[in-house]
Write the structure tokens for this entry.
Amino acid sequence: MIHCPNCHLKDLGKIGNHQYYCGRCCIEIVIQKEHLSVFQVEEDGSLSSLDDLFSEEERRINREESPQLIQKVSGR
Ligand SMILES: [Zn+2]
């Protein structure tokens, strides 16, 4: 579950495959491999990185333990 690293809102608007938008902070959150990148959307639509404002820890994606897919073989 992706949350806004700034306000911790979890109800983010999805704007792309790996892009989310926090309507509360007006920031764009882009999912990198293990971390989030945070961008401020300027009035002209350009993006400026806010990564400096957040620590690695804050930008780390909290992956919930996903249960391993165990294929159960039937006894036949
Ligand atoms: Zn936010």
